[in-house]
Task: inverse folding
């Protein structure tokens, strides 16, 4: 029996899936994360990824209250722009928002340079350098295209070959839901799923370099995470940002291990002012 007859009668769905996956694999560009050089699997183009990030960001902002605290807004924009300027990103339209929610000790970033910080994390940050730890970590997620990486693996896993073409177009409602789910932006908007352990650690390392290059003392990152640990023991902190992998002590130990590398960038950088963040 010929292959063509077999495919028509029995193997068509299987072959379609296999061929589509093979074709996709051949057109996927080879991406490497900045600083670490880790190989990444990303099926979306930069433009498609950015468009999806903007769509998700706008949805979040519709359901959240944007802070009108000028001091908070100035601090987040000031530090965010300084961090973004030294990051491995080009042509991004950075947008930094402060969400008015003191119960959320949290922050998140979406593709294309969309970053939001909840007011609840600012008292823990205390200063520009503490805030730089948060902002650099989030900018690192964007620069390393962790969102696109998550969406790519999620779309392949959830939709298979049928979803590949739609995912690349970004127009299918099912694909849109898959993208939103990948970011944790489904029914419970504002409660973002934590990145995986490897991505979190990678963002910590890249972020440490970014804050150092931007002129913020990277040693301040250790103090920030120690304060985050103390805040979590009070029982008032939500799990999304505080309990992401790795754990506090592992995270702090890793930061201390990476400090010598970061200090070489900080020693040669123009020092940033370390303002105290006040209401």
Result:
């Amino acid at each position: 029996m010929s292959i063509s007859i077999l495919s028509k009668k029995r193997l068509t769905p299987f072959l379609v899936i296999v061929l589509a996956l093979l074709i996709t694999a051949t057109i996927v560009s080879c991406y490497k994360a900045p600083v670490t050089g880790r190989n990444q699997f990303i099926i979306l183009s930069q433009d498609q990824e950015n468009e999806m990030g903007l769509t998700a960001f706008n949805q979040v902002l519709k359901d959240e209250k944007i802070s009108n605290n000028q001091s908070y807004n100035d601090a987040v924009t000031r530090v965010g722009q300084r961090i973004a300027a030294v990051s491995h990103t080009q042509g991004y339209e950075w947008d930094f928002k402060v969400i008015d929610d003191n119960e959320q000790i949290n922050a998140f970033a979406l593709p294309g340079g969309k970053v939001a910080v909840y007011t609840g994390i600012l008292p823990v940050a205390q200063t520009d350098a503490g805030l730089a730890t948060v902002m650099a970590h989030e900018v690192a997620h964007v620069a390393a295209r962790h969102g696109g990486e998550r969406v790519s693996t999620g779309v392949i896993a959830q939709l298979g070959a049928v979803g590949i073409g739609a995912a690349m177009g970004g127009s299918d409602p099912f694909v849109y839901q898959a993208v939103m789910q990948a970011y944790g932006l489904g029914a419970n908007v504002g409660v973002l799923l934590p990145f995986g352990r490897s991505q979190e650690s990678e963002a910590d390392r890249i972020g440490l370099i970014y804050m150092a290059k931007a002129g913020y003392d990277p040693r301040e990152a250790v103090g920030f995470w120690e304060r985050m640990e103390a805040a979590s023991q009070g029982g008032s902190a939500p799990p999304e940002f505080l309990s992401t992998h790795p754990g506090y002590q592992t995270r702090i130990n890793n930061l201390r291990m990476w400090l010598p590398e970061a200090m070489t960038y900080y020693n040669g950088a123009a020092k940033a002012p370390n303002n105290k963040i006040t209401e």
